[in-house]
């Protein structure tokens, strides 16, 4: 495991439903320095999220809120909520790959 991961700089990293067809993940960073790192498009962008979640980069949306040191990321669910192939009906476990993303 890497020395430092995104979750080390955050108060909380969470994921949740954003309706039956979307997932939202939120990074609540501890301070402005941590926010500056994860809000930087060179570090965290649609390509990184697409790779982590094996989804198309198109349609991934970022919401950067510097006043709160928060980054929100939303993307279409691979399958609709509650469908036969849905493995996480509340999308509560989707944040784990993001929280474990190496910083170095």
UniProtKB/TrEMBL annotation:
<protein>
    <recommendedName>
        <fullName>DUF4387 domain-containing protein</fullName>
    </recommendedName>
</protein>
<feature type="domain" description="DUF4387">
    <location>
        <begin position="7"/>
        <end position="99"/>
    </location>
</feature>
<dbReference type="Pfam" id="PF14330">
    <property type="entry name" value="DUF4387"/>
</dbReference>
<dbReference type="InterPro" id="IPR025496">
    <property type="entry name" value="DUF4387"/>
</dbReference>
